[in-house]
Write a structure and sequence with these properties.
eight-stranded mixed sheet; 12 strands; 24% strand
């Protein structure tokens, strides 16, 4: 069976709730390998909710659908405050990336409290702003930034990572709507250890199976490279279309 589109591979999936320090309940899902413990965790931060971003934005949904089975990587997805998806609506209201600092903290705290290993932040678009602004404050392995617009995250927010040796991987689409590779090279030049990967033919929303596979491959290459190359066919246990 070819792995593409909404195919969901076997995993232990659990609807979870996060509680923020300011008393909000955020809805989410935890996906772990079907057997054994994960080799690493992805704490995912979705695109802008006022533009349709949520925990089911397709790259994050496909990461949760595939990576526990293909790479022994766990995936935590959740709706930031005021964001709604089929899983439900998180309490509160969108705060433009300010109080969402508490949402990120609640997710990282959840992973730590569950004893899950090696958390990486994976932000997409608006989610990269949260990772850049607030990720340094937490015990994480590193950050992966998909299509960073650098709107709410300032040059000072980026430069603050210069003395932080944790890995930073930045995927920049060739045809991004907001920040393209040449400009990204300049904006991230203050972080010498950042690995910037221009993605030829890429667009901000990473539409299509080819771009999905490229993004998931780069994520796994950063987090658990021993799992590469990712299979493109599934011959294991029951899988279904989401």
């Amino acid at each position: 069976m070819e792995i593409r589109g909404p195919l969901m591979l076997p995993a232990r999936r659990e609807d979870i709730e996060l509680e923020t320090i300011d008393g909000l309940r955020l809805v989410g899902e935890l996906a772990l390998p079907e057997n054994g413990e994960p080799r690493a965790m992805l704490v995912t931060l979705h695109p802008l909710p006022t533009a349709g971003g949520f925990m089911d934005s397709h790259i994050l949904r496909k990461a949760a659908a595939r990576l526990p089975a293909l790479a022994d990587i766990g995936v935590l997805r959740f709706n930031t405050r005021g964001t709604e998806s089929p899983r439900g609506r998180s309490d509160g209201e969108f705060d433009g990336g300010r109080a969402e600092a508490f949402d990120l903290a609640a997710a990282v705290d959840f992973v730590r409290e569950r004893g899950l290993p090696r958390p990486w932040l994976v932000g997409w678009s608006f989610g990269t702003e949260l990772a850049l602004k607030y990720g340094r404050d937490h015990e994480i392995e590193g950050t992966i930034l998909l299509s960073p617009p650098l709107h709410r995250a300032t040059d000072d927010d980026v430069a603050a990572w210069a003395g932080d040796t944790r890995p930073m991987v930045v995927l920049v689409p060739e045809f991004d709507d907001y920040l393209r590779p040449d400009a990204a090279m300049r904006r991230f030049s203050t972080v010498p250890h950042a690995t910037l990967i221009p993605v030829e033919g890429g667009k901000h929303l990473w539409v299509g199976e080819h771009q999905t596979r490229r993004v998931l491959t780069e994520i796994v290459g950063a987090v658990h490279p021993e799992a590469l190359p990712l299979p493109v066919e599934w011959h294991g246990g029951a899988a279904h279309r989401d």
